[in-house]
């Protein structure tokens, strides 16, 4: 009796058996192989390529900026002019430079350092004399960001200092930390933040809100995500400005509102404002790095006129060169110091954050170690008066 499939001749039967055997061997081999799981490069090739190109472009821009600045500062008469022009643009004035230098701690080469970035509500040069009269000429530092800069780790950490953080002056008075600037200037603010955070501050930079508007406009606007509709009166013009929610490119005037507005938030008003300020700072950095490399020296010189700092051209060149060695754009962390509080009768009935030395110590321990402080609950250890 024939054992093959019915209707097949001998040749067809042999081919069928051979194919069946081949299929069986193939299945056996596949059973021994691990299952195929396509990764992100296979599933999303366009996204991966764009992300990689963006990282490479940012690294190249930073590297080229460092090289161009180094070359510009090291050769020829133009180099001397550029370096001098940049130093003059960055200077805060001889008197303030001296007091700030005295307040700053020395930094160690190739080691992480802390820098204080301060935004004041000064309206000097705005032409709005009525506004100056209304504020009594006072200048407060409503924006205070402590930066930990670690070029070796290619990392920058931003820590917002809540403006209502209590600070005890030498005469025993308790004030909000943002009032220290009006009392003793930049040098006093540096000492206050250093004492609150428990770390030495080695560099300082300052920008006024009127200059923030010019800086953002000079960049052609910056892209941020506005989470709620913000409506605020422009402190310089008196004009009411509204910024709609959503991801968008904002103008300099809108950037001021984005950095100032807080009453639109139902809870944690100043915490939301601080988060907006940090988002704006990162957006400005990104916009600068996204510029064509050949434009960067000019861009740096333009922007320097809006910022005052103790850093000199050589310091900036060294820092840019150090960061340019990284394999990608710098890692940036963002957080805030303890910000819960209430009306303080002992301080004259003003709203202050609760005393919270343990919260600050816990936060800065993570920051100082180069860790990621985002998401930490730093308010749990607040000392709430009975």
UniProtKB/TrEMBL annotation:
Residue ranges annotated for the Cell envelope-related transcriptional attenuator domain, each copy included: 140-288
Q: Where are the transmembrane segments?
A: 60-81
Composition skew (Basic and acidic residues), residue ranges: 11-22
Tell me the segments the record calls region Disordered: 1-30
Specify the superkingdom: Bacteria
Q: Name the InterPro entries for this protein.
A: LytR/CpsA/Psr_CW_biosynth (IPR050922), LytR_CpsA_psr (IPR004474)
Question: Which keywords has UniProt assigned to this entry?
Answer: Membrane, Transmembrane, Transmembrane helix
User: What family is this protein classified in?
Assistant: Belongs to the LytR/CpsA/Psr (LCP) family.
Recorded protein name is Transcriptional regulator
Which organism is this entry from?
Paraeggerthella hongkongensis
